[in-house]
Amino acid sequence: MNQHKNLHPIWHILVIVALFFGVQITSYTVFAGTTWTGGDTNITELMNAENWDNGMPTNTNPGTITNATITMTANTTISGTDNICALILGDNAKIKGGYYHFFPLENISNTEAYFNLTLTGNAKMSTRHFYGGQNTTNITPIDDEDYVAYYTFSGNSMLETNGEYHPARGNITSYTILKDNATITCTTDALIRADSRMDIQGGTLKLQWLVNNGTINQTGGTVQIRKNTQDTGDLQGSGIYNLEGGTFNGAKIINNMTFTQTGGVLNVSDIFTVGSGSYNFNGGTFSVKNFVGTLTQNGGIFDPVMGTTISNGYNVGAGTIQVEIKKDADGNLVYDTLSVGETIAFTDKSSIDLLFDASQFSTGDEFTFLTAGNMTYQNGTDATPETLTTDHIASMMSAYDSTFWIPTLTDSTLSFSINPNAVPEPATWTLLALAMLGIGYLRRH
Questions:
Q1: What residues have CB less than 8 Å from 102, skipping those under 6 apart?
Q2: 125: β partners
Q3: What angle do CA 316, 318, 323 make, to 5 degrees?
Q4: β-strands 333-335, 320-327: how paired?
Q5: Please, which contacts does 279-283 make with residues 24 or more away whose CB atoms are closer than 8 Å?
Q6: Which residues, other chains included, contact 417 with Cβ-Cβ below 8 Å and sequence gap of 6+?
Q7: pLDDT at 389
Q8: Given CB 3.0 to 4.6 Å as the disulfide criterion, which of 102, 142, 413, 439 pairs with 112?
Q9: What letters, b where the CB count within 10 A reaches 16 and e where it falls short, cover 214-235?
Q10: How many CB atoms lie within 10 A of CB 347?
């Protein structure tokens, strides 16, 4: 593809004629080395391309905007001139201003269309809102495509909206890929509508709340949701969320979705409400302050904080409960706690992992980790659950943890106290430290 920083005027004439007569432009760089200022009408210098397959061109190379700034006034839109079109922003390309960017086609309804928007390198798009179509738009996928609009944010690119991120409106369907170190930031909400999809493979998604009625697959990257000012969940909707990797940070989840976690980290600083949906906890790490519903764990690590509550029951299953114990600067014990409203059910595949620095503790240190309406243990899938005992607790602890901590049970509480036989005197800690230093010296010499 030819790269021209300053296109000859004849090229501009040819382009206008081509667009007027509907000729498809398959290879050329637009706005290279120039500044484009939009007016109140639509910018139509989008690249049209043939032979697309699953969001990428097969036989053509649509134009890439590089080293250019496109400034749009209020209510300016970007739209295509054909029912198959693409816009690719490369290094040092910027689009800024405008009330919304309208993809893929302007004022065209009841038709088939395909649109591709790609941001690569350090490309940046800044706008008031990001809308894919309007609420009245009626466009269906063309040929064998699964979606109407495809969006890819890669490299160090950035999409920044001072409003909403709605990649598909009306009946448009969209497929968004966020990867590498790319960033999508919006000050209000993002909406993934029904039959649309978003794959978060890397990068960062920052917003105030997320409504997911489609499918979100997160295998990497970070989703950061600030606690919103509405009386709604930071994550809500009736779609599907698959968390396989990366980190999801939010304050509140109202889950009418099918939410499945097989990996990654899920941090909910306030409340997770199951609602009419389901939470399938099969792997990864889950930390929450308040869980409303029954929590069933089939794997992974449950990481409660100080004051974590589960309103109903908790089936630990083949999972691990992680408990952190430490001392603050004043020597006071600081530790995680868990309160379960109904029954907490352990099995022979459950485990309890205590995280602590043994040198901080001394004889007499103890804490209560768990309170529950009832506590049971099931040894084998066909066995009848029985009342939990300290022997059961010890069997779920590592040999190291059970050497230092002795479990104590009442009808409704589980506590741990330091084993006086396992804690060396302060002078012994000093000797051990000196011994370790000596070993290190001998290894170096």
A1: 42, 77, 78, 79, 131, 132, 133, 134
A2: 95, 159
A3: 55
A4: antiparallel
A5: 279/255, 281/319
A6: 364, 365, 366, 405, 406, 408
A7: 97
A8: 142
A9: bbbbbbbbbbebeebeeeebbb
A10: 20
Mean pLDDT in residue range 132-139: 76
In total, the chain counts a number of residues equal to: 445
Sequence letter at residue 213: N
Residue located via tokens 């980790």: 369
The helix (run of H) or strand (run of E) holding residue 158 is: strand 158-161
With a CB cutoff of 8 Å and minimum separation 6, the contacts of 377 are 345, 346, 347, 348, 385, 386, 387, 388, 389, 392
68, 191, 163, 180 alpha-carbon torsion, rounded to 10°: -40
Can you give the pLDDT at residue 3?
Answer: 34
Residue 34 to residue 199: CA distance in whole angstroms: 33
Residue 196, CA distances (Å) to 24, 57, 117, 169 in order: 28, 21, 15, 10
Structure tokens at 105: 């086609």
Q: Residues 163, 55, 192, CA angle at the centre, nearest 5°?
A: 35
pTM score, whole prediction: 0.83
**Secondary structure letter of residue 359 according to DSSP:** G
Give me the helices (H) in 210-257, please. Answer: none
What's the average model confidence in pLDDT over 99-126?
Answer: 74
Confidence check: pLDDT of 287 > 90: yes
Map tokens 């109407």 to a residue: 148
